[in-house]
Amino acid sequence: EPEVTQTPSHQVTQMGQEVILRCVPISNHLYFYWYRQILGQKVEFLVSFYNNEISEKSEIFDDQFSVERPDGSNFTLKIRSTKLEDSAMYFCASRDRGLSSSYEQYFGPGTRLTVT
Amino acid sequence: AQSVTQLGSHVSVSEGALVLLRCNYSSSVPPYLFWYVQYPNQGLQLLLKYTTGATLVKGINGFEAEFKKSETSFHLTKPSAHMSDAAEYFCAVRKYSGGGADGLTFGKGTHLIIQP
Predict the structure, then answer these.
(1) Which residues of A are less than 8 Å from B106 in CB distance?
(2) What three-state secondary structure class fits B12?
(3) b vs e for A65-88, b when ≥16 Cβ sit within 10 Å of the residue's Cβ?
(4) To the nearest whole percent, how much of chain B has pLDDT over 90?
(5) A100 contacts B107? CB cut-off 8 A
(6) B72 to A72, B5, B18, B104: CA distances (angstroms)
(7) Would strands A65-68 and B44-50 be described as parallel, antiparallel, or unpaired?
(8) B112, B21 in Cβ contact below 8 A?
(9) Residue A96 near residue A30, CB atoms below 8 Å
(10) How far out from the chain centre does Cα B2 lie?
(11) Which 3 state secondary structure label does DSSP give A68?
(12) A100 with B51: Cβ contact below 8 A
């Protein structure tokens, strides 16, 4: 069964450094998402992406964040200058362009980002 | 805007007993509702969803949920708990931004504990 993959599974970085989290969505999917989950808290929407542009972003997704689909298969989340509070699990999700009634997002296993 | 409230951050049941996890939603449009399960150190797995049609939806692992518009609820049930059901459960509602790339708004989650 097709699945969303994410790399790396765990990333440790120092405060102020740039990180890129990578995702490979399911191949025929057209909508892409990033979410984050701070330890012990709920999953929060960051951004959605469609047709090579951001469709919607939350207030969390400030100028330090950017997303890109560089090559038609990967979907990346970049954090330019990491802060301690960026430490979280980051989930990528994707969905196809099916009927609204079949709306379903498929989540990857996540990347745990630790900022020290 | 859409929102989700999960009553009870922790629910403990005995093995073989009924599982009931509560979810109430707020939505200005007909909602799309989801239950996801997260096992320790893993990603999010869709249990079931309601988009349109039958209000009683069945999911994986013997779980089901009933959409009740009058009560703005989407409670998750399972007749007989199994030890393997111990996990974090998240209720979510589709955000409506007018485009097809809507993300999900999650509740804070309910940690299900199964007592032997």
Answers:
(1) 42-45
(2) strand
(3) bebebeeeeebbbebeebeeebbb
(4) 80
(5) no
(6) 40, 10, 22, 17
(7) unpaired
(8) yes
(9) yes
(10) 15
(11) strand
(12) yes
A85-110 confidence digits (pLDDT tens): 999 999 999 998 766 656 889 999 99
Contact state of B108 with A41 under an 8 Å Cβ cutoff = yes
Pairwise CB contact (< 8 Å): B46 & A104: yes
Say how many C-beta atoms besides its own lie within 10 A of residue A59's C-beta.
Answer: 7
CB pairs under 8 A between A and B: 71
The whole-angstrom separation of Cα B91 and Cα A52 is 29
Q: How does pLDDT run across A26-83, given as a tens digit for each residue? A: 998 999 999 999 998 889 999 999 999 999 999 999 999 999 998 888 999 999 999 9
Determine the Cα angle at B114 with ends B113 and B115, to 5°. 115
Residue A17, min C-alpha distance to chain B (Å): 25
Nearest to B75 by CA among B15, B24, B26, B2: B24
- Which is it for strands B33-38 and B44-50: parallel, antiparallel or unpaired? antiparallel
B98 touching chain A per CB within 8 A: no
CA distance A56 to chain B (A): 7
CA A16 → CA A8, A47, B67, distances in Å?
A: 19, 22, 46
Q: What angle do CA B66, B72, B75 make, to 5 degrees?
A: 35
End-to-end, the C-alpha distance of chain A in Å comes to: 37
Side chain identity at residue B93, one-letter code: V
Does the beta-carbon distance from A48 to B42 stay under 8 Å?
no
Alpha helices in A1-116 (DSSP H): none
Radius of gyration of chain A (CA): 14
